[in-house]
């Protein structure tokens, strides 16, 4: 019997940092008897499971083969991490967490499984997810974005009870994604503490943390606005994208074409590989992330009043999670009062955009790019000079 820690996210709780760190240190973890499943395998299994949900395709054997491959590993402990299994799929009217919970229970039957889930306060979750969507090409405003998200996707009690029903309440580990509650204020240290990795292993992993430029850093609110404007230029309109997607789908075998998941597989590839403007968009994204780093603030899109109304929708559900899974009365810290939010850069509704801040955000990015180009030119010049001297000496 394997000991399995299955981390289901949720999204926007440091999942990218955690997964990258786990894979980068997979060999070190194997030495301690811990195997990290490749995210690509879990992604393939998730897509095939969703094929079954969306299109009724019988791919049980293929999904089983993926999990059996991992269960056959010699290590005593398996770590699996993929946030899609939290079931927050907005193409469905409601969360599909129960479907994934039941599917995983079926695939991992007979194993010792701990489900690990990190929860983020819903207002912060939506602000962070909006910024990530803008990075990926979204062009709509935050208010328009909120209207797209209905159902119970943000009902954390629905999520954790779905997994508790499939694996048992005592096998669901709930953590709050708040630096004040994470071990060493770090998602990686907190998760490895759950896995009970030896201190020597923790020290080895901490010693090779990625530099800041390789981390999935955020945007300021104004940088997000700049990106959103540029997205209108760089991204294909829906009709063009759908036409290219259909043209690509026509090249697929009929049995593959029937699977909705295969459309999802190629959609991102089309967006990145077909549109010639994408490299420019990615460069602007990199620069805006760099310009946002000195700010150190999370982007805020709710006003104080909007934030309070939004959180009130989840207060009862959050209380049930806190009481039943953490043995306490409150799940999340309350946001600061109005004065405190204003000090953090709370958004104030204004029909005129704050062009000064927008210009500063993008101006900083351009200035950083210019400085980087100048530094590279100096290095190239020095290398050319050294090569010329070397060539001259050889003659």
N-to-C CA distance: 70 Å
Class of secondary structure makeup: alpha/beta
Tally of helical segments: 19
Proportion of residues in β-strands: 5-15%
Number of strands: 5
The major sheet is characterized as:
5 strands, parallel
Q: Please provide the ordered H/E string of secondary-structure elements.
A: EHHEHHEHEHHHEHHHHHHHHHHH
Mean pLDDT: 84
| pLDDT < 50 stretches | none
How would you characterize the overall build of this protein?
By secondary structure, this protein is α/β, with parallel strands linked by helices. It is 59% helix and 7% strand. The chain has 19 helices and 5 strands. It has helices at 15-24, 26-31, 39-55, 60-71, 97-107, 122-135, 142-147, 156-167, 187-195, 199-207, 221-234, 238-249, 254-257, 260-273, 278-292, 304-312, 315-326, 338-343, 355-394; strands at 3-7, 34-36, 77-81, 112-119, 172-176. The chain has a 5-stranded parallel β-sheet with strand order 2-3-1-4-5. Helix 3 packs across helix 14 (260-273), helix 5 packs parallel to helix 8 and helix 12 crosses helix 14 (260-273). The protein starts with a strand and ends with a helix. The model has no long low-confidence stretch (mean pLDDT 84).
């Amino acid at each position: 019997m394997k000991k399995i820690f299955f981390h289901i996210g949720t999204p926007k709780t440091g999942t990218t940092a955690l997964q990258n760190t786990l894979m980068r240190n997979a060999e070190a973890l194997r030495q301690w008897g811990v195997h990290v499943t490749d995210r690509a395998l879990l992604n393939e299994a998730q897509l095939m499971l969703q094929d079954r949900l969306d299109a009724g395709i019988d791919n049980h054997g293929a999904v089983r083969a993926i999990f059996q491959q991992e269960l056959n590993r010699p290590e005593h402990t398996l770590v699996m991490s993929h946030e899609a299994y939290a079931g927050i799929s907005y193409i469905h009217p409601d969360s599909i967490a129960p479907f994934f919970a039941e599917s995983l229970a079926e695939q991992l039957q007979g194993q010792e499984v701990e489900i690990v889930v990190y929860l983020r306060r819903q207002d912060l979750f939506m602000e962070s997810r909006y910024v990530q969507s803008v990075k990926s090409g979204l062009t709509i405003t935050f208010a328009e974005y909120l209207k797209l998200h209905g159902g119970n996707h943000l009902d954390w009690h629905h999520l954790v009870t779905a997994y508790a029903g499939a694996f048992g309440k005592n096998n669901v580990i709930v953590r709050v994604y708040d630096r004040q509650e994470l071990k060493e204020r770090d998602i990686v240290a907190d998760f490895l503490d759950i896995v009970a990795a030896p201190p020597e292993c923790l020290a080895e992993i901490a010693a090779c943390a990625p530099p800041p430029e390789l981390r999935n850093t955020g945007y300021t609110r104004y940088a997000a606005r700049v990106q959103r404007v540029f997205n209108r230029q760089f991204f294909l309109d829906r009709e063009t994208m759908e036409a290219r997607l259909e043209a690509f789908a026509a090249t697929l075998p009929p049995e593959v074409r029937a699977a909705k998941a295969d459309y999802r597989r190629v959609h991102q590839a089309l967006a990145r590989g077909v549109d010639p403007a994408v490299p420019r968009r990615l460069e602007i994204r990199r620069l805006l992330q760099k310009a946002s780093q000195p700010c150190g603030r999370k982007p805020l899109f709710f006003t104080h009043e909007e934030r309070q109304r939004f959180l009130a929708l989840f207060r009862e559900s959050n209380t049930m999670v806190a009481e039943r899974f953490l043995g306490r009365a409150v799940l999340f810290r309350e946001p600061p009062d109005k004065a405190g939010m204003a000090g953090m850069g709370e958004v104030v509704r204004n029909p005129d955009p704050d062009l000064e801040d927008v210009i500063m955000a993008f101006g900083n990015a351009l200035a950083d790019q210019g400085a980087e180009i100048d530094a590279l030119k100096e290095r190239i010049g020095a290398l050319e000079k050294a090569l010329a001297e070397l060539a001259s000496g050889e003659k």
